UniProtKB/TrEMBL annotation:
UniProt xrefs under InterPro entries: FTHF_cligase, FTHF_cligase-like_sf, NagB/RpiA_transferase-like
GO BP annotation list: folic acid-containing compound biosynthetic process; tetrahydrofolate interconversion
Name by which UniProt lists this protein: 5-formyltetrahydrofolate cyclo-ligase
Lineage of the species this protein comes from: Bacteria, Pseudomonadati, Pseudomonadota, Alphaproteobacteria, Rhodobacterales
Residue stretches in coiled coil: none
NCBIfam families per record: MTHFS_bact (TIGR02727)
UniProt source species: Limimaricola cinnabarinus LL-001
Cofactor(s) of this protein: Mg(2+)
One example GO MF annotation: 5-formyltetrahydrofolate cyclo-ligase activity
Database matches in Pfam families: 5-FTHF_cyc-lig
Residues at which substrate binds: 52, 57
């Protein structure tokens, strides 16, 4: 077994265990965005990219709606495999079309370049590592954004999604902080 195959197997096992923890947290706790809303309010006017929650992800929409009062807010659009995400401007109540994400993306609107990116995740650890769905979209996107200007990568998750350790590849982009329904985790 090659080192890459071993890492892929470890990531797959970690992903499966994390999905179960997240599903249990989603059933047992309401998806509260209070800490996320307060944190974003401390960065008024900065463009924000959120996401449309799917499956049992914690829902950032309340924080995105509040942010839209003072800043441009976007949601991710997948333009193809192996490509970074782009973010189309979103406003509460705007018309959405179905896409790769459960609730889709706006039919029209300007593209934005966020300085804050709220990321969904399957699991995270205290070192700022994130386990996503395995497509690498956010890693490619963060790498591109970080090469062109300042950006804060904010993982948003249930506290139950914390893992002791996340298997990491050299292409994985770290989180600057993680916000849960219980509080804020600053990576060590």
């Amino acid at each position: 077994m090659s080192a890459h195959t071993g890492l892929a197997a470890r990531k797959k096992a970690a992903r499966e265990a994390a999905f179960l923890r997240r599903e249990l947290a989603h059933r047992d706790a309401s998806a509260q965005a209070e800490h996320l809303t307060r944190w974003i309010a401390g960065h008024p006017g900065l463009p924000v990219a959120g996401y449309m929650a799917m499956r049992s992800e914690i829902d950032p929409l309340p924080a995105m709606a509040k942010a839209a009062e003072t800043a441009r807010v976007g949601v991710p659009v997948i333009e193809g495999a192996e490509r970074p995400l782009r973010f189309r401007e979103w406003m509460p109540g705007c018309a959405l079309k179905e896409g790769h994400f459960a609730r889709g993306s706006p039919f029209s609107g300007d593209w934005i370049v966020p300085q804050i990116v709220i990321l969904p995740l399957v699991a995270f650890d205290r070192h700022g590592h994130r386990l996503g769905y395995g497509g690498g979209f956010y890693d490619r996107t963060l790498e591109l954004l970080r090469a062109t200007g300042p950006v804060q990568a904010v993982g948003f998750a249930f506290a139950a999604q914390e893992a002791d350790e996340i298997p990491v590849e050299e292409t994985d982009q770290p989180l600057d902080l993680i916000i849960t329904e219980s509080g804020i985790v600053v990576p060590s």
